[in-house]
Specification:
alpha/beta; five-stranded parallel sheet; 7 helices; 12% strand; disordered N terminus
Length: 215
């Protein structure tokens, strides 16, 4: 009789334990890219804005990881950073990539490389959902702001066309940066000031929510 009761209690503990594990198993999201991701991760750690928290206010809904390296191109990210995808095994990957490529390569070439990377994530790493963030234009203080904006627009159009037919892949526009004359940039016209960082944070959160709906 005592042995039977012990077995029952053990079974109940196992059941409760498994329920706790299942309840805590939320989707994981990896934001992967260049210096914008690196800088936002740093600023979130320093609590640069009380409205911006490292969990993206998604505790219990998703766990968010950021990995960014300054100067990353699509090719370098594919060569040196995909080990992070393997380690985390995320349900969602958000790509912030293409900015550094546009300095030297035509938008169509950059778009083709991004498309290849997306397919690689889907087929090799079995990532369920991939979001591709459109490149943020330069600020007006940058010498090549106008020509860069033209290349950004071509790349956006290219990616919208080639990625839209792929299931569970979407393009994401950082809408607040659609007007480069807004005061969101550092003096270099490339990186973002604290106001810009907060809007980037909010935009990533919106992209995460969008991606979670596709799971």
């Amino acid at each position: 009789m005592i042995t039977l009761l012990l077995h029952k209690r053990f079974a109940i503990v196992q059941l409760v334990g498994s329920s706790v594990i299942m309840a805590s198993a939320v989707p994981s999201v990896l934001i992967l890219g260049h210096s914008f991701v690196k800088r936002l991760k740093r600023d979130l750690r320093s609590q640069f804005d009380p409205r911006a928290v490292r969990s993206f206010n998604l505790t219990g809904t998703a766990s968010v990881h950021l990995h960014g390296v300054g100067g990353r191109t699509v090719a370098k990210l594919r060569s040196f950073d995909l080990h992070v995808v393997e380690q985390i095994a995320p349900n969602v990957v958000l790509l912030e990539i293409g900015t550094n490529d546009l300095a030297d390569a035509r938008p169509e070439v950059v778009g083709s490389e991004i498309e290849s990377l997306v397919c690689h994530l889907l087929e090799v790493y079995k990532v369920p959902v991939v979001g591709v963030c459109h490149v943020i234009p330069r600020g007006q203080s940058h010498d090549e702001a106008a020509s860069f904006a033209e290349r950004v627009e071509i790349l956006q159009q290219y990616l919208d066309v080639v990625l839209s037919p792929i299931p569970n892949v979407f393009c994401w526009l950082h809408r607040k940066f659609s007007h480069p004359w807004k005061d969101f940039y550092m003096p270099d016209g490339v990186h973002l000031n604290p106001a810009g960082q907060y809007h980037l944070y909010r935009s990533y959160r919106g992209a995460i929510v969008r991606a979670l709906r596709l799971l």
